[in-house]
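ping. complex inputs:
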Amino acid sequence: DIQMTQSPSSLSASVGDRVTVTCRTSHTITNFLNWYQQKPGKAPKLLIYAVSNLQSGVPSRFSGSGSGTDFTLTITNLQPEDFATYYCQQSYSIPSTFGQGTKVEI
Amino acid sequence: EVLLVESGGVVVQPGGSLTLSCAASGFTFDDYTMHWVRQVPGKGLEWVSLINWDGSSTDYAHSVRGRFTISRDSSQSSLFLQMSSLRSADTAFYYCVKGMFSSSQSAFHHWGRGTLVTVSS
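pong. complex structure:
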């Protein structure tokens, strides 16, 4: 199974900040790396697919980058509605696996 | 609008069985791989199972293989998860998820609200 190492597990930030979340995979996954946002009591929501493709309706302050085994989610100009937990996921091989999550707090 | 509505989550005793259902609408059900993903309350996400567009191919997480069976009914646009030999570790919210494309490698595009399964005596 492909292991996902996501960091940090939590971070404190302020409105307007730039936030970076990293995800490292145990094997090369080409571009099969996706990012999700989850708010308390809600289902996860797809933010970015295939490393850097913004899902329809997702604000452009979200971006993704990376290749091979190292990937990054960046949020610029953090907004109040962005305080949530973020997960990376590899869909390269079964079982699909998720990172442990990064909680972005005020 | 894509809608995925799970049902069937209840409190069940260890060793018991349960079937979850997911009613899908707003898209051509037969065109997409479907998944179940679970989440222990307050914890992370765990992929459970997938079924391809026509039901000819399925796969499972190691933790549920041999105990859970995924299936789909195109006539009802429904997805199912039969769960048996349930353990306390199976306690979680179970999400019905639609893949972005027909490929099993596509991102998890749409999620239901989830249904809570509690395994407890």
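Chain A has a mean pLDDT of 97.
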